[in-house]
Amino acid sequence: GVKQEDIAVVIAGNQVTITAEVRQWERKEGDRMLRSERYFGNIYRSFMLPLELDESASEATYEDGILELKLVRKAAAPGKKRPVR
Question: Nearest 5 degrees, angle CA 3-CA 61-CA 45?
């Protein structure tokens, strides 16, 4: 019941946040009401992963009512050599 343009996916570090706006939906035939959904408003889901994510390489697709996230982890930075005293 959510349109693609009403969905937002935000990736920040290791946190992924999905928000969507659900709107009231009605189907009418002439003056007769066939179906009416009453719930509308904003929905929100947020979760954290154990690794940092690469925001630019990650993707979100929406097809046939299914939101698919392809999350790419950020490449590990090479360690820096420290002098021993």
Answer: 70
